[in-house]
Specification:
The complex is a heterodimer of chains A (about 250) and B (about 70). Chain A is mainly alpha-helical. Chain A is built from six helices and no strands. Chain A folds into two domains: about 180 residues, no CATH class; about 60 residues. Chain B is built from three helices and no strands. The radius of gyration of chain B is 21 Å and the shape is elongated. The chains are: A mainly alpha (about 250), B mainly alpha (about 70).
Chain lengths: ~250, ~70
């Protein structure tokens, strides 16, 4: 059964990846182009800055390829992998988080995944276009990025555990409210503990940064919405044979 | 309300021993896929050169991974 769910998760993830690619190509790529134009302007102005920037001396992959096949490969592999991992998580959660059917479980898990692996980490360390971020700090920034990602996932897991414990004793609303407050408190601790990163160069357009970051969140939102609803539909067909007179919420 | 009745019992969970082998091997391979999209030839590198990095460059930026 798990193998079948895994396959369905990867199929839902692949479809989600295709739609995320279309979104990214339409809304994200213009911002990448603006950023690269800024980068070239800067390196033309000061030749010393050349090797600090992102374009290597000889172009390994053309911009045309990067913004089409490269972007598509990235979003499709990401979507498929994330969809598969999501299915494994679903296999564990289904039937263990209360009276939720396959579709409701999938939608709930996807919403939690979007919040904990896209929204929350990006509130601390938002996505950056090319030209933002220096090569010397890549190791530190990568460590912080995965640090906040892991901390965010742990905070979500802890919040769910609290909610589950309090649910039976205090009822759904009270339990979820307390768990939600604990989650927010944990996030506040994490955000205060981790250092800020701000490497936006002087003169970089605030509009481009904003549009780039919103489109990055949009890509994740498309991805998780499609995985949550798409996988839910596929899993329901496998798990819940239609029986007359019986309906599970979701 | 139609003829459907609402059964609020949780569905039967899948046994852990059915999930575990898939989670370990499937999870490992999928994580490797994420690694190549997100991090190869960034802070750490398994393959020499910047070919992978440059190819998935735009996806890496737009998905929010630290790129360079």
């Amino acid at each position: 059964m798990t193998g079948s769910l895994l396959l369905r998760g990867m199929v839902a993830g692949l479809i989600a990846g295709i739609l995320a690619f279309l979104f990214a190509h339409h809304f994200g790529e213009p911002q990448v182009d603006h950023a690269i134009a800024f980068e070239e302007q800067m390196s033309a102005a000061s030749p010393h800055a050349m090797q600090m920037q992102d374009a290597p001396a000889e172009e390994l992959v053309s911009r045309q390829t990067q913004s089409t096949w490269g972007l598509a490969t990235g979003t499709l592999v990401y979507g498929t992998a994330v969809g598969g991992i999501f299915a494994l998580l679903f296999a564990f959660a289904y039937g263990r988080i209360g009276a939720l059917g396959a579709r409701a479980t999938s939608a709930l898990l996807a919403a939690m995944a979007f919040v904990s692996i896209a929204l929350v980490p990006q509130l601390k360390y938002p996505a950056n276009p090319p030209a933002v971020g220096s090569d010397e700090t890549i190791v530190a920034r990568t460590t912080l990025f995965f640090g906040v990602l892991i901390a965010s996932i742990l905070a979500m897991v802890i919040a769910v555990m609290i909610a589950r414990r309090l649910w039976a004793r205090w009822g759904g609303w009270n339990g979820a409210t307390v768990a939600g407050a604990a989650y927010v408190a944990l996030l506040a601790l994490i955000f205060v503990a981790l250092p800020p990163v701000n490497e936006i160069p002087q003169g970089f357009s605030a509009q481009v940064i904003w549009d780039f970051r919103v489109s990055s969140l949009g890509i994740h939102l498309v991805l998780w919405t499609v995985i949550g609803l798409g996988f839910g539909a596929l899993a329901e067909r496998r798990l819940e044979a239609r029986r007359p007179g019986r309906a599970v919420y979701g | 309300m139609t003829t459907a009745t609402f059964d609020l019992a949780a569905p039967a969970p899948l046994p852990l021993k059915d999930i575990l082998p898939w989670a370990v091997f499937g999870g490992l391979i999928l994580m490797l896929g994420l690694y190549f999209v997100g991090s190869e030839e960034g802070a750490v590198s398994l393959i020499k050169g910047m070919q992978v990095h440059e190819f998935v460059h735009d996806a890496r930026h737009l998905l929010g991974f630290p790129c360079h």
